[in-house]
Amino acid sequence: MAPKENLHPSTDSQEEPSSEDQEAHHERSPGFEYVAQIIDHTLLKLDATEEQVDSLCEEAKRYNFKSVCVRLQWVERAVCSLRGSRVRVACVVGFHEGTYPALEKAEEAVKAVQAGAAELDMVMNWHLLKEKRFREVYEDVAAVKTAASGLAILKVILETSQLEAYDIVAACTIAAIAQADFVKTSTGFCGQGATVENVRLMRSTVGDRIKVKASGGVRTLEDCLTMIEAGAERIGTSNGVAIMQEANSVNGIGANER
Question: In the annotation, is 105 catalytic?
């Protein structure tokens, strides 16, 4: 039996941005459309409802996010809701502990792809990684890569808050060898989320072989821009709407003006 999960990821209170912050955003902002297209609009809490999933998808269509990221049970509904739009559906695999057997993760990945998922965000078995059981970690990632059958982008969640720097380097190297498409910082359910230091380390390790996704604790436009500057090419957040509203106020354009 899988361990119980927290119903909600941890959140920290955020201060309102000052006028100086907003001016800095304007100088650094890569543009409304660019920001929207790197966001995975996320709903992963266990007690999510049909109405919340529908709302997630409507928001994703309005702002033209890159994807919505949901659990397996919601993939088919999200695919139906997003039909005719450019928004992809991403599904988490082995979430959130990452300790499920590789075969179970592969089976979950197959079901997700069959339901219409175009991206898979799998949790690496970081417990094995810390024990230096690298072959088993590789086999874990490779099993999901094979299950994706070239039909879905694979992102590998490292859970960086639980790892030392040398673990992160090893995890990135294994993910690259297993031909993952992204390495991703965090689930958002276990300890600290993305940090600038870890994103930079991941980027320097993988180079241009694969991409980096920052997830966990990215709640503002400032957070988003900081992670992009550190080397992230995708952002996972449940605060996508707030980020885009902030980007709209900075850039003076937005979804309601397109």
Answer: no
Banded model confidence at residue 250, pLDDT cuts 50, 70, 90? confident
Q: Residue 100 — φ and ψ, nearest 5°? A: -60, 150
Q: What is the pLDDT of residue 3?
A: 39
C-alpha to C-alpha distance for 183 and 172, rounded to whole angstroms: 6
User: What is the pTM assigned to this prediction?
Assistant: 0.86
> What is the CB neighbour count within 10 angstroms for residue 58?
12
Choose the catalytic residue: 40, 66, 121, 181: 121
**105, 145, 211, 213: the active-site residue:** 213
Is 145 one of the catalytic residues? no
At 18, the amino acid letter reads: S
- Per-residue exposure over 68-82, b if at least 16 CB sit within 10 Å of its own CB, e if not: bbbbbebbbbbbebb
pLDDT per residue over 43-96, tens digit each? 999 999 999 999 999 999 999 999 999 999 999 999 999 999 999 999 999 999
Write down the catalytic residue from 181, 184, 211, 223: 184
